[in-house]
Amino acid sequence: MALPKISASNASATEVRCDALLVPALQVGKKFELPKVAQEIDAALDGRIREHLDATGFTAKPGSVAMVASGEKLAARSVAVAGIGSRSELSTWTLRRVGGGVARRLSSSSTIASLLHCELQDGEGIAASIEGLALGNYRTTNFKTKPASTSTESIVVLDASRDDVARGQAIVQAVALARDLTN
Q1: Spatial distance between the Cα atoms of 183 and 177, rounded to a whole number of angstroms
Q2: 3-state secondary structure string across 114-169
Q3: Of 133, 129, 126, 128, which Cα lies nearest the Cα of 160?
Q4: In the chain, % of residues over pLDDT 90
Q5: pLDDT(2) > 90
Q6: Which residues pair with 172 in a beta bridge?
Q7: Which residues, at least 6 apart from 65, have a Cβ–Cβ distance to it below 8 Å?
Q8: What whole-number distance in Å separates Cα of residue 179 and Cα of residue 181?
Q9: Is the pLDDT of residue 146 over 70?
Q10: CB atoms within 10 A of CB 15
């Protein structure tokens, strides 16, 4: 299976051109909290993210995803808000699992720009979010006559160093190779 191209970018989240801009939301009791970067994107959309999340009862439970169309306000066509749970329980495992679920939900998006890691900004958090996003749509296609495909061609990781992204990409390639060899 072809893996999506993974790259780092220092572009502003409001200016990056993509099909889906992925931002996290934290769970606070039965409500949600938007991290600073998501608040900036919400402000660019005149509060439509918060309004939509409030109206739908979004709680930021790990794995929950809400989609908000961006209209003409952002370069991104839509914003995907992914629940990552509470700040106290946030881990690389959570980011990996949430990234995988989001990848399946956004499988029709050609380009995904991600800030999923912004609450766990170390190299481990960046690598974990890349692993989840890139491997979430992995399918064994070696023995299928008409393999199902994902249209996700690229993942752009925002606000991350090239070294951290390269590390995450190396892990993704190693895991995909291991899966291919066992299948």
Answers
A1: 10
A2: ECHHHHCCCHHHHHHHHHHHHHCCCCCCCCCCCCCCCCCCEEEEECCCHHHHHHHH
A3: 126
A4: 73
A5: no
A6: none
A7: 80, 81, 82, 83, 101, 102, 105
A8: 5
A9: no
A10: 10
The residue among 2, 44, 42 whose CA lies nearest residue 23 is 42
pTM of the entire predicted model: 0.90
DSSP 29-72: TTEEE--HHHHHHHHHTTTHHHHHHHHHT----TT-EEEEE-TT
Contact 66, 58 (CB under 8 A): yes
**CA dist., res. 156 & res. 60, Å (int):** 23
**Quick one: pLDDT band at residue 138, thresholds 50, 70, 90?**
confident
Give per-residue pLDDT as tens, 77-136: 999 999 999 999 999 999 999 999 999 999 999 999 999 999 987 899 999 999 999 998
